[in-house]
Structures are given as structure tokens and as C-alpha cells.
Amino acid sequence: MNLFDQIAEARIQEAIERGELRDLPGEGKPLRLDDDSAIPEELRAAYRILKNAGFLPPELQLRKEVREAEQLLHQLPESERSRARARLELLQLRLAASRRQPINLLLEDHYRQRLLERLDPTDRYSS
Q1: What pLDDT digit, counting tens, does each position of 20-59 carry?
Q2: pLDDT digits 0-9 by tens, 58-92
Q3: Which one of 7, 34, 65, 112 is most buried, by most CB atoms within 10 A?
Q4: Are 126 and 114 in contact (CB under 8 A)?
Q5: Cα–Cα distance between 60 and 51 in angstroms, integer?
């Protein structure tokens, strides 16, 4: 334990002995510790501050928006899904681009289905 940790532990113990930590919200409940092992150690404090302030890193914000768009899409009637589907596809493209990974549109059901419809020789008059 380094000097800073020892000082912090001593101050916490003194506060406990004076009763300053009684009746706090969440007292007696387990702590919800986030797994921040994927975040470089020098960035963890900054990420925690941003998270506590309600900000997310850009990729996590995009993931959140994708989940919200998916939920909205499932709640809408079929007649109103076109615009929501387009927004979801745009968000998915942004997320894939942020990861710097190639996008295989043939794996996306919507694009694959449209491609198959256009390639169908029996349906010459579809747009």
C-alpha cells in the first residue's frame, strides 16, 4: 500500500470512528463496482468522472443510441418503421466506422433482402 492509500485509509477510519459515515444512502448494501480493466490505468479516473457526470465515450454513446433505436423500431407499427429503420442503419454504420472495421452489408438482413429482390430475374419491374 503506497503512502497516498495509507493516508486515505487513515482518514476513512477516523471518519468512521466519529460516526460521519452513518446513515448514508446505500449503507449496508453491496457496492456496484464497474469493471474498468479494459480502460488504461491512466484514463480510469477521467472516465469515472465523466461517467458520474452523465457523459459517455463516443462509442458507448453510439451503442446506447443503437439500443434505443432498436427498441423504438420494435414498438412502432409496420407502416411507420421506414424512417426508424433508416436511423438505426445510420447509427449502425457510424458504430462500425468508429470501430474501424469493414462493413459486410451482405450480413445485414435488410440490405441482403433488397439485393436479392433486385437480382430476382422473375421480378423485372420492381424498383
Answers
A1: 988 888 888 887 777 777 677 887 888 788 878 887 777 7
A2: 777 888 888 898 898 889 888 888 888 888 888 88
A3: 65
A4: no
A5: 11
DSSP assignment of 2-35 equals: -HHHHHHHHHHHHHHHHTTTTT-TTTTSPP----
| Domain extent listing, the chain | 58-103
Contact status, residue 66 vs residue 95, Cβ threshold 8 Å: yes
Count the neighbouring beta carbons within 10 Å of the beta carbon of residue 91: 19
What is 56-86 written as a DSSP string? --HHHHHHHHHHHHHHHHHHS-GGGHHHHHH
- Report whether 84 contacts 72 (CB < 8 A): yes
> Cell numbers of 121, please?
430475374
Q: What is the mean pLDDT of the chain?
A: 79
The cell numbers describing 91, all together, are: 447509427
